[in-house]
Protein 1
Amino acid sequence: MARHTVADITVADLRTVNSDTTITDAIEQMFETGSPQLGVEANDELVGIVSHRDVTRVLHLCGQIKQEDSVLEKSITMAVNRSYGLVEPEDSLFKLFDELADTPYVIIDTGDSQKILRDVGLHQFLEDEIKEFLLIEEIERTIRDIFRETVEDELDSKLKETFFSLDLRTPSRLEECNFRHYSIFVSDNWGAFESQFEHKRDFVRELIDRVGEIRNQMFHFRDLDDQDTLDTEFVEFAREHLNYIYDERVTG
């Protein structure tokens, strides 16, 4: 699996204004373009970044000396934040982490243009990347909770009984099981699970097996083409169904 680089993150172009732009004009441009921040240039060189927050801070500070109205016609450089990092598209995400740890903004120089990234953009990217991992982790916790609630004190012995004669590693405790174990355990001990899974043994077995397949695709870093893209909707469906089963058992 190829490592992620800065180029994998969707980022916005950096819109810029000249250093002689007034604070009022800069604010108006932010609203007109929908840009939460602007680059500020002097002599065609980037000297810093200005955002809504930077402007608000300057106005608040000038308000303490009752000069907030007059400052609106001053140069935007009064509010500029000169702390920003620089990265290139081929840089690793680790370099991006380091830059954002020290500065609120990172400028990405593509050669043809400059783009800007805040930590919130990186957070969204990471959330999208690990969403399936978190969903599957929740599914596994729910399955284990259902097993514990259903089999209770006999769980360890039932695990040994179920897998001892099979050509499959025999787990000594629930934490050693994988999704294949979960599927077989439900099927072979159906009498204990039948009522809560609404008499749908094949459905439950296939559901768990499919989640296990998706989990293996992720954790083994298999290359996936467009037709084999991880099915987030299926994982979400499995999570909702199993959570419903568990909640019904607890509250019922």
Protein 2
Amino acid sequence: MREATGTSAVAETARTVAAALARSDIAHLIAGGLAVQEHGYPRVTIDVDIIVPDVLEAAEFGTADLSGHLAREPEFQDRLRDKRSGVMIDLLPAGRVLKAGCKVPFPAPTTASDQLQFVSLEELISLKLDSWANSPLRRLRDKTDVVELILRRKLPRGLAVLAAVRDMYLETWNALQAEK
């Protein structure tokens, strides 16, 4: 799919970041659109969302090799850019929420590896619902991702999403069943 949509550079950038972090023994988890793809909904994404224990440390070590492929984005302390493809990498803080009002913290990665480590399906759906709930117009794609994952994966009503978004998941799941 990534070849057909012209977004294979996004996956390559994710692998580059994972390798750079692994060299410094920094664990990571892939979230966002790449995680949605990995969990069964083939949709287009143009950036990499990666959860790390310490955003500033990950940015520093990720760009330590000056001849490497990653560069800091000067106006954002939590964003890198792949110098080859221009793909942006957003570093997300493990154990914290992205903005005020959010209730689901990013999970803590435990594995430093050059292989891509993805958030679990339950974590992904919890993060997506929380993001949508706090910016329902700007983050509509997050809700769509949840709907498509429920449909494509035939997810159960009792999926172990976090309590903070459980009612939203049940409401979405029930509405989908009512539309059959």
Protein 3
Amino acid sequence: MSSSKKLNFASILVYLYLAISVFLTCYTFYRAEIVHSGNQFSYYYKYYLIFIFGNFFWFIILFLNGKKKMQIIIIISSLCFVLYFYETVRFFKPSILKSDFFKTLNKENVIKSKHGEKSKYETIQDLKINKGLDVVPSIFPSVFLKKNLVDKELDIFPLAGVSNKITVFCREGEKFAIYKSDRYGFNNPDKEWDQKRINFFLVGDSFAQGSCVQPGEDMASQIRSLTNLPAISLGMAGNGPLIELATLKEYIVKKNPQIVLWLYFERNDLDDLKIEKSNLILLNYLKNNFSQNLISKQFMIDKKLLEQIKYSERILLNPDYLKKKHTEKFLSFKKIIRLQIVRDKMALDRGLDFGIDPLFKTIMLNAKDFISKFDGQLYFIYLPDKERYTNQNLNEDVYLKKIQVLKLINDINIPIIDIHKKFFTKQNDPLQYFAHRIYGHYSPKGYKEISKIILKEIYNININQ
């Protein structure tokens, strides 16, 4: 009787695994052939192979004796447990590392706790109350692409932060990056704008803005230090190609730029464009003579930004909002079920290829033509994602459409400086150039060495400072 029960129980579990495998095969077919109309076979074929193999595997297991069935079920179940345990720990890692228990185990967090780990909001309040400073949090143009706005009908689209303010930016390590914004709200010494001609303009996202290093350590500052020439960063975190084009057209006028560095970050720039192109104001920048004349509207811009900051603070401090965010965290359970992190680490979750939005080429051509009117030269700086070096994608030119992007830029005759090829592939330890080896942005040393590479490629000289 006992043997029969074990046999039945084992068979039930095998049927259950077989049913799951069949379901996943059907779901793969639905996603590949119906949702994507059969156009993404290069992505889905590996899932077809895995699940079809699973179907045959569990079908064969049905014919084994009860003891062998149980042995295989125990092995497979143990493997599933390990995968889901890893997925869960990685998913909740940020919360786990903030717990009191793990602070005692994590050396970096012990140092933080000794200094008193403060949130961005607490840091701002401390600077305001205890030091009497006029401080604001960083605010980015991409905020105005979201629904959570105090001004639902935008009559103007800001492209920088609040001007002439101590700005608390971001933290990757012990200290927040804090800088005094310039007259237009960017991360530069304000006096740079007094120069009649700016030799270098940098446009891009958080890498161009200087996440998350101290003043003087960002890329524009490194270029100023290495060349003794004027350099201005127009970068803001979260920017994509369309916002970057808009920023160039608003702020380089009358500054006769000699060199414009377009910092392209491979991880998310094309994804950012998907959101940006829904904004009608930004799309207008594809027209030759469109401008919001933002340089003459700084008072209006600052007012709008400060209103948005206050609105966001009220929402942030609302108990209902905090409760909602906590609930949303647990609603992300479906990401764990799908083993999203595990699939990414195993390179299974890559391969969906929708091509490159034709608008990207239009934007780059538009930027090139615009800069040429000032007798300037546009350079396309390809910045690699840290995951290339943690996930052993060092030589993967197909990773994040790299080869497609560079071909597009090469075809329209924009000079390319490939930081992955020119710098990181030549390093024995690429991670040393990322913040604390764990964050996605560069360390001060990383920004400096990359700046040297850029200058070497432009001027064909070695800089040893």
